[in-house]
Amino acid sequence: MPFFILVALLSVLLILLSFYFYFEAKRKKEAQDAKKALTVRVEKMKRRFKSETQQWMLYGALSKQDESTIIRLPTYFFVFQPITPANVDHYEQSLGSVLLTVNEKVLLVPNNSDDAKAPSEPLYQFIQSLPSAAQGYNASFYRNDLPVLIQKLRDAEIEQVDELNREDTEVA
Q1: Residue 39 contacts by C-beta under 8 Å, 6 or more apart in sequence?
Q2: pTM to 2 decimals?
Q3: What is the domain range of residue 25?
Q4: How many domains does the chain fold into?
Q5: Of 26, 33, 75, 97, which residue is 20 to 30 A from 151 by alpha carbon distance?
Q6: Under DSSP, is residue 137 helix (H, G, I), strand (E, B) or coil?
Q7: Mean pLDDT of residues grouped by 10 in the chain (172 residues)?
Q8: Which residues contact 72 (CB under 8 A, 6 or more apart)?
Q9: What SS3 class is residue 34?
């Protein structure tokens, strides 16, 4: 009789361990898949940002040096912070905001300089405001400083449009 109890207990223990390892492997696989999905989102946004900046360079809105400076935004984002869903959401929102502001606000305003290929002044000031060293692209920069820089870029563009509208009304 004790032999059967021992065999039954060992069988139950073996079944419980099997369930534990099965569910633990499943949990690890799901976590790995979630991490991979985040990485794919990051790479997709990085490719989009690089593609847009290359177009800006082709249009003459950026110099090669300015392009390499602005490319640091997506490149250094996860150097000083982990890849988490909240950080990836902030990454996409921040870079999307830069793209939207430059595409819809800065590049659509006519350039006042004689050289049509010259970069617009607000975009140039934005790029010059970015940190020059990799250490400057930390979590604090992306959470606090970058939104302020984007807002300054938007505001500078609004001021530039207002000046153009005033000049047009004065001429008429």
Answers
A1: 83
A2: 0.76
A3: 2-171
A4: 1
A5: 75
A6: coil
A7: 88 96 97 95 96 90 90 94 95 95 75 53 90 92 95 75 55 52
A8: 130, 131, 134, 137
A9: helix
